[in-house]
Amino acid sequence: MQNQDEKLRRNLITFALFVLSLMILIADGRFTMQTNTELTCFTQAKEQLDLSKHGLRKVPPNLPMNTQYLDLSYNNISSLHGDDLEHLPNLCVLKLTHNGLEIISPLAFQRNPRVQVLDVSFNVLKIIPDLNLPDLRVLDLSQNLYNSYSLGRSFKNLLNLTSLGLGSPLVKSINTFDFAPLCATPLKNLQLGAGAEMSHFEPGSFTCLPALQEMTLKMSFCEKPLILGDILRDLERINVKSLTLKRFVPDQCDVTSNLFEQLKGMEHLQNITFTDTFFNSSVLTNAVSNVMQSSAETLSFFNITFAQDTPEGVKIHDLPGYNKTVRLRVLTFHKIHHHQYYFPLVSVNTSLFPHLTHLKFSGTGMSIIPCNLISALRSLEVLDLSDNILHNHGLWWSACSSPEEFPSLKQLYLRNNQFKDLQFISNHTHEMKHLNTLDLSKNVIQLSRTNWSPHLTNLSLSNNLLGDAVFDYLSPYMQILNLSQTGITKMTSDTMSQLPDVRHLFLSFNNIKDLPSDLWAPNLEELHVDHNSINIFPQSAFKGLPGLRRLKASNNPFICNCELYWFATSFNKTVLIDWPEDYTCSAPADLAGTTLEKFRPSRMSCDPWLRGVVGVTTTILVTAAFGLVFYACDGAWYLQMLWVWMRVKQRGNQKAQRLGQVFDYHAFISYSQKDSWWVECQLVPHLERENFNLCIHERDFVPGDWIIDNIISCLERSSKTLFVLSQNFIQSDWCTYELFFAQHQAWSIQQDSLVFILLEPIPINSLPRKFLKLRSLLWQQTYLKWPNNDGHKEKIFWARLKSLLQVTNPNTVLEHVAKEMCPLLKDTA
């Protein structure tokens, strides 16, 4: 029997700590604004300016005009005058906390009509300033030194004000006229007090605030606890939904009356929060009992100090005279400090909480939970036991014999405890039939064979040293997985194939060096890989993530080269939830510190497809241009000539061969086949009658030899080359070759062995560019012109031609021509 009593006592003690923990609201330690007010000005990072802790004595005059958010907290600005902010017409949010600010001029904001948030808390303002800010939404004047909460007439014009903070340690009374100027404002959130003891309150002081929804009171009711009842009645009259009591009972305050009696009759209050205050067991019992008889659905305690002043401790077994169902659904408890050195006695009837769905019990040093909690709260859906010293058997105590573990529990948070055995925990997930979320982050988890329940889809193992092997101990049914700061060094396609249903994957603060190019996770919607060792993002990796909607990848040592070019320029930045801050280059050295947003290499240097297109296009254009020039300049002909010239060179040194040579022919005649009638009927008969030995291709070419070799051989064996020029000659390719070779031979032996007969007029400009020598000769009229049907001139023509074929010295030619022409001239006379 004694053992059973001891066991019951231990259960009650543990449960007491549990209930207390779940009655705390997470809040910070000083008076802060809490509001959901939506602002119409949206400040971007480039329009925000933080000048806090800069030792400033006045507002700097050279601030950017586009500044919308300005933080001047923790400086030495003692006053604010009309011209201090006139250069900031777009200012929307201004913070001037902790400055020793004494004066705010009524004209201080005359050039700042867009200010919507003004925080001048924690200063030494001795009066509540008049403000001409028609668009003001949030105003915090708390923790100053004015001696009254009476608001000036200017507050009548603040028709958009939704949140107001007032507080001074010098103010100990609240009067009905204090808030009268706010009767027409849509004020929803009022935070009042600076920790002073209230000595006077006029009922009806808050009734002129019909839109008020949330009230925070930072004041003490130790000496006059009835004031709290008067305030609660006022709040009930205007249907306030949320009440926060901060430091309402100082340490060692002797509360003798029922401080919370008025809570019973409140029909509209839904949320009650106690924070930064002292509780003894009797006051706590009274508070909880009365809250349970109100309409409140959420009861929260934060950062309380507890002392036991009654033998039975906290005891809540029944509610005398109360036959309604308790509406309480959420109990929150975070951080409890024990005034004594032993655990308090707590006895709570869990059947009084039939609708409780959320319990938070954290920061208490709890190491074990009572057995009846496991199955007694059948409606419980969310249980948070974070920041304790629980271990595997502290949650699932072997001495407990519960027929059903947490029958309705869906979410279990065990962050920052002493859990180790992953197999033990995974086995118990099968016992909790509805569990879908489990948080085991920041424990001392050791990997072991697991047996996860298929209905567990959300698991957090962050802040545990697990390594790459962790992927082998996960469930394929996971949809949300947090493996941040677990020592992972690689992410492979094989590991992702083990998680086919994962939709949200958090891998921040690891040592992952790259994403696999063959990554395939079609269901993945959100991926966090920030604070890793990733240098580049291969484009192929994201092709395997067609469903990706959110990506966090900042604070990686990016190498800004062409492999990252596509990510900086083409990747859909709406997917990046933290772009562009903290996306910077770490290499190369000249780009270190440059944001990826500003990384803009030339597209030509980083786009292979574009380089290929430009290269092919350039090649085509150059080839086309070269082809046009080649065609226009008879390039094909010159190439042929070059090849033939090389063949000629192979025959040996021309000059050496010609020195001292006896020629077989006086002349080689080059003509077009279409002019053969003149050559055969006129030229050849006339010259051969004069004993000239002529070479004609139709008669003297060696049958079977290559024609080019025949031409070259005849040129070499002839003293002269006689060209019969006509339009037919110009159009003949073979005649062109013969002219080219003859010119080359003449240059080689340094003599003029070329003789030109102009059979018919040829316009010089009609000659192709390849006939440069011929054009020059025609310009100089260095040729013999055939006098058609003129007998006298024909005699002179033949005389000159014979002279040219007989000698090579120009002076000798002139002498012979003169001798030939003298008889002709006499006959003419």
Can you give me a brief rundown of this structure?
The longest helix has 25 residues, at 608-632. By secondary structure, the protein is an alpha/beta fold. Mean pLDDT is 81; it is low at 1-35, 652-659 and 808-829.
Describe this structure in words.
- It is a single-pass type I membrane protein.
- The chain crosses the membrane at residues 12-31, 609-633.
- This is TIR domain-containing protein.
- Pfam families: LRR_8 (PF13855), TIR (PF01582).
- The chain is α/β, with parallel strands linked by helices and 829 residues long.
- Among the domains are: 487-601, Ribonuclease Inhibitor (Leucine-rich repeat, LRR (right-handed beta-alpha superhelix)); 636-786, Rossmann fold, CATH 3.40.50.10140.
- The protein has 21 helices and 35 strands.
- The strands form six sheets. The protein has a 22-stranded parallel beta sheet that branches. A five-stranded parallel beta sheet has the order 32-31-33-34-35, sandwiched between helices.
- Helix 2 (226-237) links the parallel strand 12 and strand 13.
- Helix 16 (707-716) runs parallel beside helix 18.
- The model is unreliable at 1-35, 652-659 and 808-829 (pLDDT under 50).
Topology:
Blueprint: H1 2-21, E1 48-50, E2 69-71, E3 79-80, E4 93-95, E5 103-104, E6 117-119, E7 138-141, E8 163-166, E9 173-174, E10 189-192, E11 200-201, E12 214-218, H2 226-237, E13 242-246, E14 271-275, E15 278-280, H3 281-292, E16 298-307, E17 314-316, E18 330-338, E19 346-348, E20 358-362, H4 371-376, E21 382-384, H5 392-395, E22 411-413, H6 422-428, E23 437-439, E24 458-460, E25 480-482, H7 493-497, E26 504-506, E27 526-528, H8 539-543, E28 550-552, E29 558-559, H9 562-569, E30 585-587, H10 603-606, H11 608-632, H12 635-649, H13 654-658, E31 665-670, H14 676-689, E32 694-695, H15 697-700, H16 707-716, E33 718-725, H17 727-730, H18 733-748, E34 754-758, H19 772-779, E35 784-785, H20 791-806, H21 810-828
Parallel strand pairs: 1-2, 2-4, 3-5, 4-6, 6-7, 7-8, 8-10, 9-11, 10-12, 12-13, 13-14, 14-16, 15-16, 16-18, 17-19, 18-20, 20-21, 21-22, 22-23, 23-24, 24-25, 25-26, 26-27, 27-28, 29-30, 31-32, 31-33, 33-34, 34-35
